[in-house]
Amino acid sequence: MAARENGAESGPRGPYDVLVIGGGNAALCAAISASRDGARVLVLEAAPRFYRGGNTRHTRNMRCAHDTATEILTGPYTEDEFFDDLLRVTGGQTDEELARHMIHESKDMLNWIVEQGVRFQPSLGGTLSLGRTNSFFLGGGRSMLNELYRTAEGLGVEVAYDSEVVALDIDDGTFRAATVRRGDALVRIEARALVAAAGGFEANIDWLKEGWGEVAENFLIRGTPYNRGTVLKMLMAAGVETIGDPTQCHAVAIDARAPKFDGGIITRLDCVVFGIVVNNRCERFYDEGEDIWPKRYAIWGRLVAAQPDQIAYIIFDARSLELFMPSLFPPISGASIAELAGKLGLDAEKLTATVEGFNAAVQPGTFDDKTLDDCRTVGLSPPKTHWARRIETAPFYAYPVRPGITFTYLATRIDREARMRMADGRPARNMFAAGEIMAGNVLGRGYAAGIGMTIGSVFGRIAGREAASNARQ
After folding, report:
1. What keywords sit in the KW lines (predicted)?
2. Residue 6 DSSP code
3. Quick one: which H or E segment has residue 177?
4. Model confidence over 407-449: pLDDT tens digits?
5. CA nearest neighbour of 65 among 433, 454, 435
6. pLDDT surpassing 90 at residue 357
7. Percent of the chain topping pLDDT 90
């Protein structure tokens, strides 16, 4: 069952010290960490090799604390500033002890991850405003993932693709074995310790509908179709404690023309701050210029989800067309707002009135897309508090957007050692978790760019180390 780099396969030669379920960043960090600590490790990836890696394939960067500028970062980002940012975006809905622990541990991740073969490039600027806080992977998430796999395989970590876990043998908080479906065969794999790093349940539309209702049918799933939450459900059934709200998630506004699954980063739109956003009644519904985009982009999925038919439209003019990274799909254009409305299927008179009302409320200011500028509206509800410029230069453009779900926040509760906790308050004996499946410990709501990869890397490294130590005992 263990997939080798050359594509040949053989059966597992158990028992293993550490079994890692999942194939993304958190899983690979756990596998590498455990292997470097002397453990014999098997990674189970439900996806085929080509689609390995879960949502990591679509990532670009990670947010880590650091005390000084570096070759790739323009200035310091202290632990306290990171924590303040996290408190702000989550509204305080975070386990503060775990959050501070993660942030402190993140300071060493930029070095550790490079030691595993990953390379960084200078951070991007513009609307992302991440040059000081976030480190960008050279070649993106897929390149980063390939380096982690190369390192893991070089250490002797075995990887099995097309290997879906369908049952877990857990007895009173002790993991015994996993039953794995491989084609038509079911295989039992025993291990001394378990690391669950199998993602959330965002690709399980039926589970999303349990919390969201029928509106979830209109959600698009930005990442892998393999994150269906089956491992999370099995852990819950075995008595593992959970934390988080099943309706909370990383949800951004993405191009409505994106595919149902796996559209990735190229369907995200970063132009909200340069225009206005209206629903299909041509009404604005939130302040488009509330804060720097990386601290607000992940609220727009939920905002659009609350609109009629879960659809909205970003409207802007020619002056803003080249100020942001475009979607894979070209914007819809019109010589006038009325013509644009017709192409969008919106009421031309209502959209024109909305744009004219916005233009009338815009105050003089100095536009600066790199800071919280003084361009704002007065007497408008909702206001636009920054980057407000009149929409008056033809041609006019629009992107239709829908909620794009990246990952969910219902999670297994863990401690500082990434050890799962049982519902009765006891720590699990030999079960650990990392990545999206435990991210809700840190992210009760909200998001800031790059935190997901930080959670996966930090707790993956911890989970692997602790699982290896546990297996020795």
Report:
1. FAD, Flavoprotein, Oxidoreductase
2. T
3. strand 174-182
4. 999 999 999 999 999 999 999 999 999 999 999 999 999 998 8
5. 454
6. yes
7. 89
Q: Could you read off the pLDDT of 361-383 as tens digits, one per residue?
A: 999 999 998 899 999 999 999 99
Q: Which residues fall within 8 angstroms of residue 96, CB to CB, at 6 or more apart? A: none
Query: Position of tokens 């863990």?
Result: 414
- Could you write out the three-class secondary structure of 29-73? HHHHHHHHCCCCEEEECCCCHHHCCHHHHHCCEEECCECCCCCCC
Q: What is the pLDDT of residue 130?
A: 83
Contacts of 92 (CB under 8 A, 6+ apart): none
Concatenated DSSP letters of 432-472: EE-GGGGGGGT-SS---TTHHHHHHHHHHHHHHHHHHHHHH
State how far the Cα of 367 lies from the Cα of 363, in Å rounded to an integer.
Answer: 11
The CA distance from 34 to 349, in Å, is 63
Average pLDDT in the chain: 94
User: Hey, what domains does the chain have and what are their CATH numbers?
Assistant: 2-246+409-472 (3.50.50.60), 251-404 (3.90.700.10)
What's the rounded Cα separation, in Å, for the pair 357 and 128?
Answer: 28
**Exposure string over 144-173, b if 16+ CB within 10 A, otherwise e:** bbbbbbebbbeeebbbbbbbbbeebebeeb
Binning pLDDT at 50, 70 and 90, where does residue 340 land? very high
Return the number of other C-beta atoms located less than 10 Å from residue 229's C-beta.
23
Would you give the distance in Å from CA 370 to the centre of its chain?
24
Q: Are strands 185-196 and 16-21 parallel, antiparallel or unpaired?
A: parallel
78-81 long-range contacts, CB within 8 A, separation 24+: 79/103, 79/104, 79/107
The 10s digit of each residue's pLDDT in 14-32 is: 689 999 999 999 999 999 9
Burial 372-398 (b: 16+ CB within 10 A, else e): ebebbbeebeebbbbbbbebeeeebbb
Instruction: From 457, 407, 449, select the one nearest 63 (Cα to Cα).
Output: 449
CB atoms within 10 A of CB 294: 22
CA torsion sign for 455, 459, 460, 461 is positive
Beta-carbon-side half-sphere exposure of residue 50 (alpha carbons within 13 Å): 0
